Amino acid sequence: MAPLDLNHLPLCSIDFPLELTPDEIGSLSGPINTLLKSSYLLGAAFETDAIFNSLFDIAEEIARVDACGHIRRSEVRPNGWEVAILRSPGPPPDPEQALHHIAPGAIACHFGKAVLLDPEREESFREICDAWGSRSLLSCPIRRDRDIVGALVFGKKESHPFTNVQVKLLWVLAMQAQNHLQRNESVSAKSAYSFLEPLTHLYTRPYFNNQLEKEILRSRRSGESFTLLMLDIDGFREYNDRFLNASGDIALQEFAGILGGSVREVDTVAHMGGSGFAVILLESNTDGALALANRIIRRFRRHLLPGADGSRTERLNASIGIASFPADSFDLADLLSKGERALYAARERGEGSAFPYHEIAGNSHLKPGGKDLPVNKIFDAGRSVVDMDKFLEILLFTAMQGLGAGRGSIVVKDPGGDFSLTAAVGFDRYDEHLTAAGRFHPGLVTQWVFSHQLPLVVSRPEDSPVGHPFKKNGYRTESFLSLPLTHLGQPLGVLHLTNRMDHRPFAWEDLKAFGPTASEIAKILAHGIAFRENVQSFSFSILSSLSGALELRFPFLSGHSVRVRDLSVRVGQRMGLGNGDLDALRHAAALHDVGIVGIPGDILAKTGNLREEEMELVRKHPFLGSKMLEGVPGMDAARRTILEHHEHFDGTGYPYGLRGEDISMTARILSVSEVFDSLVSPRPYRDGFLQEEAARMVKAGENSLFDREVCNVFFEELRSSPDDRIC
C-alpha cells in the first residue's frame, strides 16, 4: 500500500448530532449497566496496557466489536505512527501490512474527529479493513490538550456498520482513554519517593497493590512464579499502648529496616498500615519464601526494642503468611485473600510463625458450634455475586449458622463518614436500627468497636463495658459478639452476632474460631465497596463526558453544571447536610442536565419562544437524566434529586407536580442554585441578568417556586462570597 494521500481522502468522518434521542437513551440502559458491571474497570488500571485492555473489554461488550487497537504517534517511525496494542482475530501484522494497520489513526488525525471506514461505501478502504480482519472500522482520535496523539480503532466483522448509539458510546470510551492516560502520565512523572510511607520509608499500600497487579500481568505472560508475604508484628498494639506511640513508631521503623535488609532490591516491600507489612518476592516459590520468612522472624525476635525508660529490653515476634502465584492462586484478589488466611493461621500458631497457604488449602479447620464454617465456599461465591448487599446477608446467615446465633448485622462506615446498615438477619423489624429520619443511628457498641478496632464478647448484659439496648421492642439481648471488619489495615465496619439459639452465652473461644470467616467477610466487603466506588466513579465519568460534550456543542451551557455544583454544595454545607446527602447533591448538581442530550439541538439553540410540543420535550430531561443513572450503585439519592430539581414548592413544577417537603431537600437546594445560574448566564434568546436582578427574581419565588428556608441560606451564601462569581 502506498502512503496515504490525506489531501484526497474520501469523506469518511462521522457528522451527526451528538445528542441522544429518547429512544436511544432507552436502549442505553442495558449496555451501560453491563459495562459498568465489568470486572475490569478503568479506575483500577494504572498500566497503559491495562487501561486499553479494559477499554477493549468494554467495547466488545457494548458494541460487539471483534477487533480493537491503539495507534499512537511515534517520533522514531518513518511514517509517524505505530500500533501500540492490537487485539484482532487475525495474525499479528507483518511489516508489509504496517501501513494498513496505522492508516485508521492517520485518517482520524487528519479529520480531527471519529471516522468510519466502510468498504461498502468506499472501496479504497477495503485493504485497510482486511488487514484488521474486519468488514468496517471506527477510529476515534485521542487528544492530549489540543494535539492528537493517537487513536482507538474498533472493528466489526458484521456486514452492517456501527449504529449511531454504538458510535456515541465508543466515542465516550475514547474520551475515557484520554482522561486515564493523562492521569497515568502525571503519576509516572512523579518520583518514586512520592509512593513512600514517611514513617517507615517503605512503599505505601496503594503503590503495593498496583505493583502486585503489574506483577500478576507479567507473570501470566512470562509463566514465572512469585510469592506474596503478608506480615504482622505480634503484640504490637499492647506494646504501643504500654510504651506510648514513640516506641511503637520505633518498632515499626526497625522492623521495616530488618524487612528491607532481608530481601533483594528487585522485591517490593510495603507498609500496609498499623503493624501490617507485605512483600512481593520475584521469581520465587513457597519453599524459598518460607526459608526467608523464618530468617526474618528470627532476626526480629533477637532484636531488642526500647522499653519504658528507653533502654532496649523488649522483644516482639512476627507472624508471616505465604501465598504463591500461580501455585496457590491465579487471581489478584484471591491471592491477597489466601495470604491473609495464611497470616491468620500463623498468628494462631503463635510465638512468631510462618505459615504457607497450601498447608490449609481446602481445609475448614475451625469448627465452632459443631459446624464447619465454609470459608472457601463463601469466598468463591462472593466473587460471582453482583448484588453485594444481598450477598452479605447470605454470608451473615452462614456465619450465624456456624455459631448458632439468632440475630446478626453488618454495619459499614461509608466513604462520607456515616454508618449504614448493610445486612441484617433475624430482625422482625429493621426500623429498630433507624432514626425517625430514616437514617441509620449506630449504637454505642458499634461506635466503640469501630473506634477502638477491638472485639467485644459479652456473655452477660451486666458485664458489658459499654452501653447496649439489651431490651428493645420486646427483644432481650442475652449475649453478643461484636468484632471490627478490617481489610489490609483499613477499618470497614462492625459485625454483630446476638443470642445463641441454644441460649448458651458467647465466649472468647467463639471469637477465635470465627476469625477466618470474619476475615473473608471483610475482604469481600472491601472488594464490594471498591467495586461500587469504581462503578460509581466510572459511570459518573461517562455521564460527565456526555454532559461536557454537550457544553462543547452549545457554548452558552459552558461551565453551568460546575458552577451549579459548587454553589449547591456550599449551600448544603451551610444547611448542615450530612456527608451522604452532600455527595448525592454534588453528583446530582454536576449531572442535573445530562438528560438534555435527549433534546434535539435545534430546540436548545432556538432564539424564539418554544411551542408547547417543544416544551414538552424539554420537560422530559429530568426523567431522562434520572433514567441514565438507573442501576448505578450508590446513585439512588442523586437520581431522585435530578428527577425532582424542576419541581416547585407549590406543586406547579414537573415532572410529577410534587409540593413542599415531598420534594427532597437536595432537590430543593439544586432548584434554587440552578435557576439563579441560568438567570445570570446568557441564553440564545436573551442576555444574562445582573446578579442583583437575578437574586430579586429568585426572592420573588420564595414559597411558590422555592423553599423559603433554602432561599434564606442561599442568600446568606451569596452575601458571604461577594468577590466570587459563584453563579
Task: List the keywords.
727 residues; alpha+beta; Beta-Lactamase; Alpha-Beta Plaits; 4 domains; 5-stranded antiparallel sheet; 22 helices; 19 strands; 16% strand
Can you tell me about this structure?
The chain has 727 residues and is of the alpha+beta class. It has 4 domains: 6-189, GAF domain (Beta-Lactamase), CATH 3.30.450; 193-359, Reverse transcriptase/Diguanylate cyclase domain (Alpha-Beta Plaits), CATH 3.30.70.270; 368-529, GAF domain (Beta-Lactamase, 2-Layer Sandwich); 554-720, Hypothetical protein af1432 (Orthogonal Bundle), CATH 1.10.3210.10. The chain is 46% helix and 16% strand. It contains 22 helices and 19 strands. The strands form 5 sheets. It has a 5-stranded antiparallel sheet, sandwiched between helices. A hairpin with a 7-residue loop joins β1 and β2. α5 (164-189) crosses α13, α7 packs across α8 and α9 (332-349) runs antiparallel to α13 (508-553). The model is unreliable at 33-46, 186-193, 362-387, 429-439 and 723-727 (pLDDT under 50).
Summarize the structure.
With 727 residues, this protein is α+β, with helices and mostly antiparallel strands.
